[in-house]
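Quick bug: Cytosol non-specific dipeptidase output formatted oddly.
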Amino acid sequence: MSSEIRSLEPVAVWNRFADLNAVPRASKKEEQVIRFMLEFGEKLGLETIKDHTGNVIIRKPATPGMENRKMVILQSHLDMVHQKNEETDFDFETQGIRMYSDGDWVKAEGTTLGADNGLGVAAIMAVLESTDIAHPAIEALFTIDEETGMTGAQGLEPGLLKGEILLNLDTEEDDEIGIGCAGGVDVTAERDYKEEEVPVETVAFRITVKGLQGGHSGMDIHKGLGNANKIMNRLLFDGFENYGLRVASLEGGGLRNAIPRESSAVVVVDKIHKDAFVFEFGEQERDIKHELQTMEPSLEIMAKPVDLPEKVMELGVQEGITKAIYAAHNGVYRMSADMIGLTETSNNIARVAIKDGKIKISCLTRSSVDSSKTDLANALRAAFELAGCEVTCSGSYPGWQPDLDSPVLKVLRAKYEKLFGEKPEVAACHAGLECGIIGQNYPKMDMISFGPTIRGAHSPDERASIVSVQKFWKFLKEILKDIPVKE
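Here's what came back:
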């Protein structure tokens, strides 16, 4: 299947993407891909360094006649979101991504594709090894851990980068030029609970929620997609009062930046209420599926009998935590008043884990307005603290404020119109690009973001448009020809 992808146009980009996707590169586990990039730069005979955080920087001199142009930083992140379907047999730590083409789309077999941000990385690699692309001096910046904390960008030291213009290749619509993004903060609620003996005269069920689309917790948060954790909590909420339902364990969702697609819980109910529970569960299933039928046609909700567990959660904590999850905001909190259609503030209840006397709930709160981000984080904190949780807010990073007077924006706008005969969409996005963080230590840097069309990022439905990659590659090469001269 790799050979099929390698034959696609532009060959230079797809070949580097295939090379990259053969290397495991989960966030916070980038050792192999860092080594891969260092070897790539060194084989080309280019200045190649790794900073103290693990970011890789490769510098390439300007092509003849372009020495008087400003140095350009081409930036993408090395890590990718690792998500797979429940039935997919795949080890992200040892296996390369299995890719195939389907019409205009490149997809992966039951896993994330890594087009976010692997296609940006591949395009930069293709520029670095090219011998026929005119360009100014290039500073390729490959950051780490973008997906789970942006620690690579946060660890960049002032003065390390030499470029004056930064082209971030991490936008997912090929007709869009990005000029701003949201900041974010991780909100985590934790508490211990006592495990109790399973009540007598009970039967056990495994409740499963699966088949949701999932997606990017920033770019897709406004679409009204189902959140497996919120659906599961809805199923459990009235269970004790009506059927004596007790929770033995629960696991839903995964990474903070992925809308959760699946959740599974083991519960017990009173034998005397078994038939009523099964009937009522069926009613809830039909209601939820009906509500979400447009956006989530593949949603499955099941309750199947299983063996009795050994322990259940203490009742008071169960009641408090289900109420807290119900109260905790998920989805869009506020739309921007300044940019029509832009989500300003949102939250993703990304992961809920209840097992062996411990509860952990992980959220990612995003906003382009820092005060609104704090407001929503405080609202979440209040809900979870009322349930006895200890709540921490960590990994906060700033948004990227739009600059409509950016000189490089003028270059990209004019180039896009000339190449494609239409105006690009100039917009901010609700994703957490690294530009805002980089701008803290490099406040005078002129930054812009663009990329090929990618759908379903952060989920196993991730796919990249082949025609769009061709458009993106043409656009990038033409931009490099018109970088402004040094002042």
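Actually, after a second look the formatting is fine. Residues 97 and 455 are 17 Å apart (CA to CA). Closing.
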